[in-house]
Specification:
CATH class: Mainly Alpha
Oligomer: single chain
Number of strands: 0
Radius of gyration: 16 Å
Helix content: 55-70%
Structural class: mainly alpha
Shape: globular
CATH superfamily: Hypothetical protein af1432
């Protein structure tokens, strides 16, 4: 990973921490941030600050939504077009502005991060490379042991059922590196969780 501990993003992590206590974002976001750093290393033309800040803040809007609504509406039928999906994006934009202002980021960075957050789940296609990397980093965490273990409960599935669902989602990742890593992670997760047996 290119970004060292105690990096310039630490102030943003600290300022956003209260919003990380919803929907297991205190697990999801750090893992997604790590994937973003790997994707940035594979795509040096992307903007490291924009991608890093956008992935760090992309889901803080879940903080504004009741957990029962998140599970019932955010993971049910037509989940990607549910009201709570749009709401968590707009709330993420709203909450990210003071976080970035308070930690000294320029207005052009704030606007670029907001553009990615707004629609990161519901927009059918990525707008540019930075957006593509955030969308892949947001998804890559779910292919690992932690992602399968956490998300299977959201979808009311066993780990094996959820891994089978993920098998069809590998192709939905935006980058070649993302697709390769997702497939690799999912194979390792199946072995670690003994999904061929249970």
């Amino acid at each position: 990973m290119s970004v060292l501990p105690n990096s310039r993003y630490d102030a943003v992590w600290r300022r956003a921490e209260p919003y990380m206590r919803a929907r297991k974002n205190d697990v999801h976001v750090p893992l997604s941030f790590d994937w973003a750093q790997r994707l940035l290393d594979a795509h040096p033309n992307a903007d490291r600050d924009i991608v890093s800040l956008a992935i760090l803040l992309h889901d803080i809007g879940w903080y504004s939504i009741d957990m029962a609504d998140i599970i019932e509406k955010g993971f049910g039928p037509n989940m990607m077009q549910s009201d709570v999906r749009f709401l968590h994006e707009s709330e993420g934009v709203r909450l990210s502005r003071p976080v970035l202002q308070d930690t000294g980021w320029a207005e052009d960075v704030i606007l670029a991060v907001a553009e990615i957050i707004d629609g990161h789940d519901t927009r059918p296609e990525a707008r540019h490379l930075n957006d593509r990397l955030v969308r892949d980093a947001d998804k890559l965490w779910r292919f690992g042991v932690t992602g399968v273990s956490v998300a299977c409960d959201w979808f009311k599935m066993t780990p094996r059922q959820y891994a089978d669902r993920l098998e069809h989602q590998v192709a939905q990742l935006e980058t070649e590196a993302g697709r390769a890593w997702a497939a690799q992670e999912l194979r390792a997760t199946r072995v670690t969780l003994k999904l061929n047996v249970i």
